[in-house]
Each structure stands twice: as structure tokens, then as C-alpha cells.
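User: I'm curious whether this sequence folds into something compact or stays loose and floppy. Could you predict its structure so I can see for myself?
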Amino acid sequence: MKAIDANGTYKVFGKRPDKAVERLRAGATREELRKEGTTAAVIDASFEVEEGEIFVVMGLSGSGKSTLIRMVNGLWEPTAGELQVYGEDIVKMDQQQLRRTRREKVSMVFQHFALLPHRTVGENAAYGLQIQGIGKDEQQKRAKEALRLVGLKGWEDSLPGQLSGGMRQRVGLARALAAGTNIMLMDEAFSALDPLIKREMQDQLVDLQSKLGKTILFITHDLNEAMRLGDRIAMMRDGRIVQIGTSEDILNNPANDFVAQFVQDVDRSRVLTASSVMAPPVALVGAEQGPLAVHKLMRENQTSRLFVVNRDRTLAGAVDEERVVAAAKEGAKTLEGILDTTVVSVPANARLSDLLWLSANSPKALAVVDDDNTVVGVIARVTLLQALAQVRAEHASALEEVVSA
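Assistant: Here's the prediction. I'll summarize afterward.
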């Protein structure tokens, strides 16, 4: 079951919204309705959010992204279509069911913190639990643990006015965590923070999500933030979702000119991953093989270095031709003594920007491994430099197009 599932969802403000939806389905434009005093905030939105996923909705002001998240929270009722939270349709819920959904399934983190100024940090973190009718001891226990998770242990008795902006936002995050809901909605949650604190909060959110497995629907107008946080991203324009995909999908295969123009200034080295530029290893050597067999494999594949793997294909090291030949001449039967165990390995999802320092300090090729330390690819230094050169060339080309337009 999907955590969130939207199918043909509309939200129209103004007179006769149902009639407006009919006109939109028949081909009327958002601008035509606007001139008549009707605002089509969300138009035919369809998307799914998997459990445990960070799903980012990205768009400029007025694109409909904040309206979308408020419908998921039940604050605004969809005009048409389906919008399900764990299989229950928001459209068909009465007020009691909506309140239960907000208490038990969905919590919200706001842009401007929304803290109660005369309540302590601990009381603010426990506020959602108080609304649910949870006992005071349990409130304090869960609030204290949530504050610990966001790095505010020891601040329970402070007032919000004594905290920095970043710390106040951590209290808002703790309140959502303490509520114990599986889904967290975050509407421009970090946009009011300065860049350094914003990056710290992004890091903390990713860390918390990996530990707790929360489903997060994150709204932002900042494309770099979307690319950094999102497992998948929905790009919105004028009320419509124009593309859904991973960061690499959107960068490499923009759905239209709007998306292409939007992503042209993104630092691709901070988005593209090792898996996007790696080459498959020409051959892998079993750790039990001897120098003669390894040298034969090197000649057949015209390479002077091969990765050595264990029987389960996990990385054991690498061997170089010069040492293999010397060992074969000495009659060695194993790779003992010539195996280079200092091979630098990187995860397949590592960003290219993170590989630069590693490659600069390791003249040999990098091994790309999956979560089980299984070798899935190789990145030679020249491959990495070529990829980065292509990134810069594409960026320069995009700038030239903008200048000449």
C-alpha cells in the first residue's frame, strides 16, 4: 500500500469550482479561468509516495505545491479526484476522520516554526501528543527522546525565544517526530534559515529518515535542496505536475523546455553519482586464483590492473601486472603477498563532487560497490575527469544559449 496516492486531483478556488474542473478537463487554461475570477491551484495531479521515501515537490511561487500539501493534510478539501493516505480517501472523510488522520498518520513541519512562545521547548515538542490525549508521563518521555534525536537534549526547559532560528526549527521537527506519525509533511521547512544552518538541517533530516524510515513529503522552491534531499522529485508549473523522477532523471532527461531551463544552472557534480559514470569491470579475479591465471586474464583483457573478489563477489583488493608477472616467475601459486588491499572503494550513490578528493589522492582506479560491498563498477581517474569536463561543457553551453537568447 502506498503512503500517499493522488489520482487526478484538482483544487479550484472561486465560484462554481466543479464547473471549472469540467472546463479544465475540456481544455480550458488556468489563465482563462483566472480572468473569470477562478483560481485553479492544482490541476490533474497524479503521483504516488512510497513508504519510507523522501518525495519532494518542487516549484516556483504560485505553482500549486503548498496547496497540494495542504490537501494531503486535510486542511483543504480536493475539488475533484482521489487523494489517499494509506488507502483512505481524504475526499470522502468527514471531519472526525480527518482529525484522526492528522493525529495518527500525518504530522506537519512549518516554514516559520509555529511554536507556542510561552511554552517550553519540551512542552512545544509534546504539544501534538497533548492534542491526542496522551498521558503526561508518556508525553514527556516521547518529547524528550524526539529532542534528543534532533540534537536538543538539555534544552527541554528553555523557551523558544532563547533559541536560534535553526534550533527553533529543530523543535518543530521534534514535535513532528514525537507525534509518532509515519508521514511527515514539510512545507518550505528550511527556507527561513541561513545557508549554513539550512544545510545542517538538510543533513539531519536525511540522517533521521535513514534511521527512522519516515515517509516525507517535502515542499521547496529551491532546486538544489530538492536535488539534495529527494529520492524522487515532482516538478510543478502552473498547478500541474510536469515531471516526476530522480535527480538524475530530471537532469539528464528533462520532460520539456521549462524543466531543462530550470535545471541548467544546477551543479551536476553534486547530483550525478558514481553509478552514472562508472564502467563495468572488464574482468574480476577470484581471490583463490594464482598469478599465471591472473596474468592470462590481464593479457586477454588488455589491462594492467584487476580487482580481486571473494567468492561472494565482495571486494578483496587489486593486483597489478608487474607484481603478478614477478610472482609467476617465482613460481607462486597464490596471490598472497602481491594483493593490494588499499583499494579505495566508493558506494554507487556517491556524488561525483565527493569523488574528487578520493581520486586526487589515489592514482589507481576507484572500485564502485553496492550496499553489500559487491563490486559493480570501476571509475578510472580519466573517466571522472571526462565526466566533470562534460558537466562544465554542458553548463557553458547552457549559459551561451541564455546570453544569445
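Summary: Confidence is low (pLDDT under 50) at residues 398-405. The chain has two domains: 2-270, 275-385.
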